[in-house]
Structures are given as C-alpha cells and as structure tokens.
Design a protein that fits this description.
By secondary structure, the chain is mostly beta strands. The protein is about 5% helix and about 40% strand. The strands form 2 sheets. The protein has a 16-stranded antiparallel barrel. A two-stranded antiparallel ribbon has the order 1-2. A hairpin with a 5-residue loop joins strand 4 and strand 5. The longest helix is centred in the N-terminal third of the chain and has 8 residues. The chain starts with a helix and ends with a strand.
C-alpha cells in the first residue's frame, strides 16, 4: 500500500495511503484513532488487516509535487492463459502490487499484497493468504503466512460467522456477517476473543448498495469500551459509476472479505465524508471485453496532489 498517509502524514499526522483498502487502494490524511491496534483499509488498498486505513486504489502515495508514477504493466506469463475478467495482478510500482491465483473453477486460491513500507527505500511489507475449499466448492478457511487460520461457517448459502486461530490453535478473533436478500454483505462485526473464552466487540462495518449492485456507502465503527458504544471512524461514498465490468477481487477491505464482490461497475469517484480528505476521481482504459486495464486516480483537494496509476493484468 502506498501512503499518502505516509506522505501527507509527514505533512499532517501520520502517513496514511490514499489508496483503498484495503485493501486493495489511495491515500488520504485520515486522523489516527485513539489507541487503535487494527483497522480495515479503505477499499482497494493493499493494506493488511492490522494496519491503519489507507485510501483505496493507491498503495504508494507520492509526496505532493513529485512526478506522477506510471504503473508498469507486467508481461503476461505464457504458461498462465489470460481469462477475461480473471484478475491476476494490480500493479502501481515494482514494489507496490497485489497478486491473485485461482483454482480451475475460478475460485481465489492465493492473495498476495505487497507495498513499499518505507518510502525512499526498498523495504516492503508482504502478506500472503491461501484459501481452502470444501468438496461442495464453498470456501472453508483462509490461512496467512504467519500461520493464523480463519474458518468460515454458513447459514444456507452465505457466511454467518468466522473464527480465527493462532499457530497454537487458540481462538483470536470472531467475525459475524449479515447479507441482504441479494446475498451482498451488509454488516460485518469483529470481536476479540480472550484466552478465557470471553468475547468482546472490536469493530463493525456497514455496506450499502445501489440498485445495480454497486457499493455506494461504507461506514466503519470502532467499539469504545469505556462507553460501550460504536463510534464511526471512516465513512466512504462511491459514485459516478461507468457501464463497464468491474474485475472481481480488485477491491480489498481485508483478507477475510477478499473472496466477496462489492462492485458490478467501476466507480468514478470516491469521497471520505467524515473529514476533509481529498476527493478521488477515477478514469479507466478498458480491454475488448470491457474490463479495465489501467486506472488513473486524480484528486480534488486544497493543495495540488500528483495522480496515481494502476495497471491490471488478467
């Protein structure tokens, strides 16, 4: 993930990417929460689950005034045939990218998120997650390279809960999911699990969609133990959708949610409603199948900010 936060953070508080999400992702100067230890990245931000949020769609936010970095498109691997809409990689810079691997049914098998963790150096943070499926084709678990394993349970055709375990098989986190009638995720709640088995709220997220099935409103809340209430931390609004196809897995909230779809079409605008952050504007180039091959992000803000470009490889 790139960090306008890391960039604007030096200028503001703490450098946070204008990505997003996620993880996949864009970086905005979002104020830091009091004593947070984990927060979801904005959509499209290649940020791991246990980092501060970054704006969607830009893993590396250049310092204002620097030239606009151009995404370098990887040469296709001839051993892996290109399939329309099956996203294999999103690349912002040689150090900032997300990669995806699939099984023969087209299900996500591996998700890799890497970003330049210290600008001006070659230091990177790399996260890898492997997804497993049952004989019925439904996802049953995801395991990180750190050994943390998350197992999903179902209510009918959709997820109901998930439970994460450490390498010693001790429970760490619990997740609850609510889906709407169209099987779109509408509510996502995270809990801490103490060694004695006690469960305490950690955060919750609400998702709202338009009639076409596109995510238009995202609200993230921290749980405040002292007041026993949820306090809104991040509020995003997506609009100006095109009529083209959105590549599955392109958006990243966190690795737990990575296999889900949140958009049908490509958003042209993203706003952070709960603070004076830059407004992101997106423009795309498409392949003959209607999927984006390049995405250019520009900003409306009270000071000039360089654009960001991402390349999509199928």
């Amino acid at each position: 993930m790139s960090n306008l936060f890391k960039t604007v953070s030096f200028i503001a508080i703490s450098v946070v990417s204008l990505s997003m999400a996620g993880c996949e992702e864009t970086e905005f100067p979002i104020p830091l929460e009091n004593n947070p230890t984990s927060q979801q990245p904005f959509p499209d931000s290649p940020v791991p689950i246990d980092t501060m949020p970054a704006g969607p769609d830009s893993p590396t936010s250049p310092i204002p005034g620097n030239p606009v970095p151009r995404a370098e498109e990887d040469a296709s691997d001839p051993s892996v045939p290109s399939v329309p809409g099956v996203l294999r990689k999103i690349k912002w810079t040689p150090l900032d990218y997300k990669e995806f691997e699939y099984n023969t049914q087209g299900d996500l098998l591996k998700y890799i998120s890497q970003y330049n963790s210290v600008q001006g150096t070659d230091m990177v943070r790399r996260e890898e997650y492997t997804y497993a499926y049952g004989t019925d084709g439904r996802i049953i678990s995801v395991t990180g390279k750190d050994g943390i394993r998350t197992e999903y349970t179902y209510s009918g055709a959709v997820w109901s809960e998930a439970l994460s375990f450490d390498k010693l098989n001790r429970p760490l986190r619990k997740y609850q999911f609510q889906f709407n009638a169209k099987k779109q995720l509408s509510d996502y709640t995270e809990f801490n699990v103490i060694l004695d088995g006690a469960v305490t709220p950690r955060s919750k997220t609400n998702f709202t969609y338009d009639v076409a099935g596109n995510l238009v409103h995202y609200s993230y809340y921290w749980y405040v133990e002292s007041s026993k209430t949820f306090v809104r931390s991040t509020e995003l609004q997506f609009s100006n959708f095109d009529s083209k196809k959105y590549p599955k897995n392109s958006v990243s909230f966190d690795y737990i949610l990575q296999p889900l779809s949140f958009f049908v079409n490509n958003p042209g605008k993203k706003e952070i409603l709960n603070n004076a952050s830059p407004v992101e504007h997106y423009s795309y180039s498409y392949d003959v199948h209607g999927y984006p091959t390049r995405k250019l992000t520009s900003f409306t803000y009270n000071k000039p900010l360089p654009g960001l470009e991402a390349a999509f490889v199928y």
